[in-house]
Amino acid sequence: MIEDFDVTSDWHVAAPYDFLRRLRRERPVFRSEHLGAYVLTRYADVRAAYGDPRRFSSEGSLTISRSLTRETREKLGEHGSFLSSFVANVDPPDHTRLRRSVSKAFTPRAVAAMEQQFRRLNEDLLDRLEPRGSADFVGEIGHEPSIKLTARFIGVPEADEAFVQAHVKDWFQLFLSPQPPERQLELADSFLTYLDYVDRLVASRAKDPQDDFTSLMTSLIGAELTHREVVELISTILLGGNDTVPNQLGNTVLRLLREGAWPVPPELVANAAEECMRIDGASLGSFRYAVTDIPLHGVTIPAGALVLLSTDSAAHDESVFPEPERFLIDRPNAAEHLVFGYGIHFCVGAALGRLQLRTALDVLGRRLPGLRLVPGAPVAHRRSIVGRGLTSLAVEW
Ligand code: HEM
Fold first, then answer.
1. Is 88's C-beta closer than 6 angstroms to any atom of ligand 1?
2. Which of 74, 284, 314, 330 is deepest in the core (most CB within 10 A)?
3. Residue 117, Cβ neighbours under 10 Å: how many?
4. Are 171 and 194 in contact (CB under 8 A)?
5. Rounded CA gap, 382 and 214, in Å?
6. More confident residue, 176 or 271
7. Each residue's pLDDT tens digit, 188-231
8. Angle 125-129-135 (CA atoms, 0-180°, nearest 5)?
9. What InterPro entries does the record point to (predicted)?
10. Shortest CA distance to 324 belongs to which of 266, 278, 282?
11. Rounded mean pLDDT of the chain?
């Protein structure tokens, strides 16, 4: 029987649900030695903690750099605490100010305007791939349109897209997934090269503003934002856009194919996307620090302790989602999942993420109605503390 989380094991991402169910029932405030954190697993507790930033602080919660070796830290120098001023990593009042600035780029009108672009990117990709009859969904279909959309949104020139993509992958690995010491040093090199690139992008927009996110944020330097905050925002939004949405799309397509629910009828696409986010969320949860001693269900979380709010468990909480392990394409409350978080840090890109998922399902369903899994091809997940995504997914049509 599983006794603790283990990010080095496949089950941690692929199939944690029996373990999580037991925690919800028996140990709703679980002290994980492996994660070095208390874990909240019940929906009501996870939601309440997100909604209580005074007691559950985000300050430093993303900086999981404590797994970095001393050598890697030395190499990174001042950047060892990268993300320290990123919007998801700070509390009010800094958070309020940063969030206000970022939100300027995610107005409903700006998000809606991206739909046509995203649709076109998917159609173009399929024009190229369709005649082949098979592909790796993760490597060849799922990522490209989101990466290109995000790059254009940020203002990364098309010629630099591949470079940026490779480096974003590296820094994600460096900061958010466990790596052996030698690999850490390589990744740190890559990360520094990338930071230098973003710096130059900001400098060029300061001189010659365009209609993009980088220009909008750069114009706020001095007034509302610092240079470092802008660099961190751009870097993390590149990650948010490059990785989470494609991961969610891969999980979603795998689920729909396994359930025999492909192609999804247009009128069910929106709810199907929510149910897939609920049952196979691309985000496993968020970390917080306890600000004071927090008594809960007979346990006291001590001040200063790290706490994982397990949205993955919340999404499978039987008290909110009856028969949680069943996929119900028309589940009435599917959208109540917390995969985008909740409260003041609620994902600023949620509307854009949802728009991409729905658009991709719509275009893919229409263009590849015969999509199916390649029989016998292995399905493996990436190892990660906070994310769920596939390493590859062999499909044919
Ligand atoms: C399916 C895709 C996505 C998932 C599952 C996801 C998940 C999340 C979660 C769980 C949080 C809350 C973090 C916390 O409370 O600690 C968050 C925040 C955030 N997300 Fe997303 N996200 C997605 C897509 C995106 C996209 C497309 C963007 C931008 C283009 C984005 C940008 C952000 C930003 C900037 C924050 C910080 C907001 C704040 O702290 O106020 N995300 N996201």
1. yes
2. 314
3. 15
4. yes
5. 30
6. 271
7. 999 899 989 999 999 999 999 999 999 999 999 998 999 888 98
8. 115
9. Cyt_P450 (IPR001128), Cyt_P450_B (IPR002397), Cyt_P450_CS (IPR017972), Cyt_P450_sf (IPR036396)
10. 278
11. 93
- The answer to whether the CB of 349 is under 6 A from ligand 1 is yes
CB distance 244 to ligand 1 below 6 Å: yes
- Domain range summary for the chain, segments of one domain joined by +: 11-396
Amino acid identity, residue 5? F
Report whether 279 contacts 387 (CB < 8 A).
no
Q: Annotate 258-294 with b (16+ C-beta within 10 A) or e (fewer).
A: ebebbbbeeeebbbbbbbbbbbbbbbbbbbbbbbeeb
Task: Kindly give the distance from the C-alpha atom of residue 350 to the centroid of ligand 1, in angstroms, as a whole number.
Answer: 7
Contact of 282 with 292, CB cutoff 8 Å: no
Residue nearest to atom 9 of ligand 1 (CA): 340
Name the band, by pLDDT with cuts 50, 70 and 90, for residue 81. low
Question: For the chain, give me the number of helices (H) and strands (E)?
Answer: 16, 12
Please write the tens of the pLDDT for every residue from 109-150. Answer: 999 999 999 999 999 999 999 999 999 999 999 999 999 999
How many whole angstroms from 1 Cα to the centroid of ligand 1? 33
Report the half-sphere exposure of 393 (CA within 13 A, side-chain side): 26
Ligand 1 atom closest to the Cα of residue 283 is 5
The answer to whether the peptide bond before residue 263 is cis (omega within 30 degrees of 0) is yes
Query: With a 6 A CB cut-off, is 339 part of the ligand 1 pocket?
Result: yes
Rounded Cα distance between 138 and 365, Å, is 16
Measured CA to CA, the distance from residue 332 to residue 336 in angstroms comes to: 9
pLDDT beyond 90 at 86: no
What SS3 state is found at 368?
coil
The rounded Å distance from CA 353 to ligand 1 centre is: 9
Q: Are 43 and 311 in contact (CB under 8 A)?
A: no
pLDDT cut 90: percent of the chain above it: 76
